[in-house]
Design goal:
Elements lengths: L5 E9 L6 H4 L39 E4 L11 H9 L3 E4 L4 H10 L2 E4 L2 H11 L6 E5 L4 E3 L5 E3 L4 H9 L3 H6 L2 H14 L2
Parallel strand pairs: 1-2, 2-3, 3-4
Antiparallel strand pairs: 1-5, 5-6, 6-7
């Protein structure tokens, strides 16, 4: 997993609440167990509308999504995080997230940032400026910085924050203890002798 320390990029405004994981990546595209290739199907049904935000040239390289409340509700599909990341979106900012989606996002290197509705409204306004406005996300300081320089503080679970900063998933954290695990396994043979 890549580390996430800071991110500066174009933010796409998604003025919709209750975006569920089936809208993020429809079930018909879940025939893979790899994390690549899903970005092409991100919001597949919504992208049928030529005015959908990610169809607009100004948001072609969006790295941040500012969304409505309860983003990622619905089923527990991990593919939703994979699709966002594969498309190039590394951070979603919203007033709230589906619990399972938020957990999956953090485990896969996608940063879900919870901010009050008023802050999200201001960031939506910034995002409406298209490629002219870029947001800055600083995970170490836990700040979102608007183009005007105004900042909004956010909180992330300390363990998950440390894992993102170091680019470690759950397996990576376990592998940090590889020498102790190997020592235990070597000594374990004596128990059965």
């Amino acid at each position: 997993m890549r580390s996430f320390t800071t991110l500066t990029g174009v933010a796409a405004p998604l003025h919709v609440a209750n975006i569920d994981t089936d809208q993020i990546i429809p079930a018909r595209f879940l025939k893979t167990i790899t994390r690549t290739g899903l970005g092409a199907h991100l919001f597949a049904d919504l992208r049928g509308d030529p005015d959908f935000v990610l169809n607009r040239p100004a948001y072609a390289d969006a790295a941040i999504l500012v969304a409505g409340a309860n983003f990622g509700c619905g089923s527990s599909r991990e593919h939703a995080s994979w699709a966002l990341l594969d498309h190039g979106i590394a951070c979603v900012i919203a007033p709230s997230f589906g619990d399972i989606f938020a957990g999956n996002a953090l485990k896969n290197g996608l940063l879900p940032v919870v901010l009050p509705q008023a802050a999200c409204d201001l960031l939506m306004g910034d995002a409406e400026l298209g490629a002219n406005a870029r947001l800055h996300i600083d995970l170490e300081r836990q700040l979102v910085v608007r183009p005007s320089g105004e900042t909004f503080a956010f909180e992330t679970d300390p363990l998950r924050r440390a894992m993102l900063l170091e680019g470690l998933d759950d397996i990576g954290v376990t592998l940090r203890h590889a020498p102790a695990i190997a020592s235990f396994e070597a000594g374990r043979q004596a128990w059965f002798a």
